[in-house]
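new request in #modeling-help
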Amino acid sequence: MIPKNIRLAKLKEVSTTYLFILPAMLLFLVFSFYPFLKVFQLSAMDWDGISSGMRFIGMKNFHEAAFHDPSWWISMKNAGIITLLALTAQNLLALALAMIVDRDIKGKNFYRVVFYLPPVLSGIVVGLVWNWIFDGSHGLLNYALIHVGLGSWTHAWLADPRTALLCVAIIHMWKGFGWGFVILLAGLQAIPRDLNEAARVDGAGDWRIFWKITVPLMLPVFFLVSILTVLGTMQIFEIIVATTNGGPGYHTEVPITRILTAMVGSARFGYACSLGILFGLILLAVSLVQMRLSKWSSHNV
Amino acid sequence: MTDREETLQNLTEQYEREKHSRVKIHLELYAPSKAYQYKVRAAAQTNTLPDIFGVLGETRDLASFIVSGHVSDISAALDADDGHWRKQFFPKALATTTFNEGNQYKVSPGTYGIPIDVTNIQMLYNKEIFKQAGLNPEEPPKTWEEFIDAWHKLAAAGKPGFVSGWGETWMIDCFASNYAFNIMGEQKVLDTFRGKVPYTDPGWIKVLEIFDAMRREGLLVPGVVTMVNKTAEQTFANNNAAFAFNGSWCVNVYKGMNPDLSYGVMLPPSISSRYPMKIWGGAGSSFVINAASPYKKEALDYLKWLTSPAQQAVLSRETMNLPSNRNSMNDLPPLLAGFAAGMDSTTHPSEWPVVEDPIVVERFDRGIQSILTGEKTPAEIAQEVQALKEQLTK
C-alpha cells in the first residue's frame, strides 16, 4: 500500500499539472471545440444567421450541396486546378530555387529573404498589385507585350474566362512558393554532405546524385510540402476577393467564396455550415491519402 | 460610411455640447462594408447591439433583425405632431425601412429606420471627352439609339467607352433592373419574381441583350466584368472612360480622385417609351434603434437632431451626399442637384411587395457576366435562370 503522504504528493503533482493546462484547455474548449460542435448543429438547420428561431431540416443542406448546387462543385474544381498547378509548378520552382540557394553561391542569404517575402505579404495587397499587372487597359503585362511586338496578345487577363483562373493560380503560386522554398531548403541542408561527396568519388554525376540520394532522402519533406500546399491552396480566398470576386461567371469561384456567399449573400447560415463541413471532410480525406502515401514511401523507397 | 466619419464626429461633438454633456455618444464606423455586416450580425447573435446601428444588406436582412426583436418601430415618433418629422424626409428614403401590411417578411407594419442621406445610381459622362469627340457636352444621350450613336462617334475619335464596377454583381443587377422596369414595366418584373412570368420571356431576353450589345459594340472598358467599383471610379476619374454607372456618392469620390474632372449626370438611356426608366435609389445610410436599448428616447432625440435641416446641410456640404431632409436641398452643387433630380425616378427592392430569391439573383448576375465575356448567349442565360427558378420553386 502506498503511504498517504506519497499519495497526497502525487495528487498535488497531478492537480498542479492540470492547473497549468487549465487556461489553455478552457480557451480551446470555448473558442475551438464549442464552435466546432456548433457548426455541426447549425448544418442541420434552416437559419438566416439573425433570427432566434431555427428550423431543423436534417440532412437537407448536405443533400442540396451534394446534388443540387453546381456552383459548389465548380468551385471545388477550380480550387482543384489551382492546387494541381501549385503542387507541380509552384513546388518545382521552390525546389529548383532551394537547390540553387543550397549551393555555395554569392548572396544566398539575400535570396533567402527575397524568396520568403511574398508569403508574408497580405493576400489582399498581393491581389491588388497583380490586378494592376494584369489590368486590361493599363496593365504592366499588356505594356510589356506591346513593347516586345506582341500587341495582339493583350487583353483583360482577369476578365477573360480563358485566362482568369490561370492568372489567379499564378498570383497564388507567386505568393506561396516561398513556404515550400524554406521547408525544402531546410530538408536539403539536413542531407549529410559526405553522402554526396562519397557518391561523387564513386563517379556519380549531379543527375544521379539527385535521383539516388536527394530524392529518397527528401521524400518525407516532399510529402510535408505537398500536404501544406493542398491544404493552403484549397482554402485560397483573399486573392480571389482582391482580383476577380469569383468571376467572370463562376470561373474563379472557390469553396471559401461559396461558403461566404451562402452565409452573407443569401443569408443561409445552416447551408454555409454544411458546405464548411463537406469541405473539411474532403480536405481530411485528401490529407489522409497523402499521409498513407507518405508512410508507404518511407517503407518502400 | 467611413468617408463621413470626420463630419459625423464633429456633428456629434456639437450635439454633446448643445446638450451640455447630458448625453455622451460613442461613434464607431467600420470599413469595408462586409466587415461591418459580420460585426453587426455577431452583435445581434450575442445581444450586444449598440443603441443606434445600421443594417447593411437587403430588405430581408433588416426584416430578420426586426422579426428577431432587435429593432424598434419608430412610426409613432415620425407621426407625432401631425407627422412633422416624417414630412421632412423624401418618401422614398423612408420607404427603404418601411414595411406595409401583408409584407412577405411577416414584419409588423411600420417604419423602422431613419435615413441620414439619400442616394441613387445613375450614369455619368465625361464632358471633356464628349467635347474632344465633337459631341455636345450639355446634351447627353437620352435614348439607347442616341447612346450607341454617341459611342460610335467616341470610338471613331479613339475615345474609351463605359466603365462600372461589374465585378460587384449587385451593380450589374442594378443596371439590369433599370432596363427590366423600362422594357417590361414594374408589374411584369414583379410577376417574374412571383413565378408568373418566366425569365425566358422576350422582355427578359431583351434586357439580357443589352449587355450582349454592349459587348458587341466594344463599348466596355477592358476588364469591367471583374472590376470592383473602386477601380471603375478611378478609371472614370482619370478620364479613361466616357461613361460610368455609379451612385451619387461618387461626387465625393471623384472630387478626391481628380478635382478637375469635368462630368455630368444622366439617366441611363431608355430603350422603351412605354414604361419609364427606373433607377435604384432611396435611403443611403439609415440608422435603426436597438429595441433593447435603455436609451431609446435619447437615441431618437439624437437622430431627430441629426436629420434636421441645419445638420443635414452640413452633412451634405461636407460629405457631398444627398441630404435625406428635403428642406436641405437648396444650394446643392450642380452635380449633386443632377442626382437629386433623379430622386423621382428611383425604385428599390425594399419598396417592392415581392423580391427575387437571392440564389436566382446571383445566377442571373453571374449569367450577365458570361454574356459580357461572350461565353454565353442571352437565351442560354435566360433558360439557365428559369431552370434554377423552377428547381427552387419545387
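bot summary: Chain B touches chain A at residues 34, 37-38, 41, 44-45, 57, 60-61, 64-65, 67-70, 160, 167-169, 221-228, 231, 235, 240, 357-359, 362, 366-367, 369-370, 372-373, 375-376, 391 (CB under 8 Å).
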